[in-house]
Amino acid sequence: MTATIEHRPAEAHNHTHGPDCGHLAVIHGDHVDYIHDGHAHREDGGHYDECSTCQCEHCSDACSSCECADCSCPTCNHNTCQCEHCSDACSSCECANCSCPTCAHAA
Fold this sequence. Notes:
By secondary structure, the chain is mainly beta. 0% of the residues lie in helices and 20% in strands. It has no helices and four strands. The model is unreliable at 1-5 (pLDDT under 50). InterPro entries: Prot_inh_BBI.
């Protein structure tokens, strides 16, 4: 059985995303998303793809800019580590032995 991974190339741009491109840059897990016109683009092997969208049934925001109050999406940026002694965002948590199910490094 072969697994299919969704690949969503971003629309063509007249520039390369980067620190001075004029678009908001947001760290999202192990990459940077460039936010503009309702899209979140991430570099992938020399081209840009649309980044992940919140999986909550009532939300369609990009995970890097989602603002759901009750978000349960495992890839959204605003989740906070659920470990007892940590209050970092899941996208930047550095807990040793982290057990939080939404942290980027959780096993």
